[in-house]
Amino acid sequence: MAKPDCSMLTRLTSLHHLWFLPLCFYVMHDFGGLRPYSFIPGFALTAFLAFYCRLLTPKTVPLSAKQQRALGLPHRTINVNACYAFWADVPIGFLHWCDNSHPLIYLLYLSVCGNAFLCGPPYLVARLFAPA
To answer: Which of 15, 18, 20, 26 is nearest to 126 (CA)?
Structure first.
């Protein structure tokens, strides 16, 4: 969201990253909290979504001449759900080991690292605050 070429629409639609998990934890608390087995379907869903995005979204899209002059780029990279590479603004080296690799290699790596390091900590926090 801090990139200079990030549009206002992108910034607005990205705000769900800030409120979605806390809202889910709040709502689930009234229904017994996060179940111990819920990590497995979550893992499967994120893997499916990354595969689906890799299958259906191009890596880049061409820009109009006006956009090229404004941004100084010939194209815009599309990386929905990190389906081609981990986010460039996350400077954690091992997360980028398989960026832009063959889809099977990268998507397996994304599924393991993404779920372990990005979904794992919120899952553990949710389990800590689950009702007894």
So the answer is: 26
CA distance 27 to 36: 17
Contact 59, 78 (CB under 8 A): yes
pTM: 0.73
Domain extents in the chain: 8-128
Q: How many CA atoms lie within 13 A of 56 on its CB side?
A: 8
2 in helix, strand or coil? coil
Q: Say if residues 51 and 73 touch (Cβ distance below 8 Å).
A: no
CA–CA dist 94, 86 (Å, integer): 10
Q: What is the pLDDT of residues 50-81, one digit of tens each?
A: 999 999 999 999 989 988 888 888 988 888 88
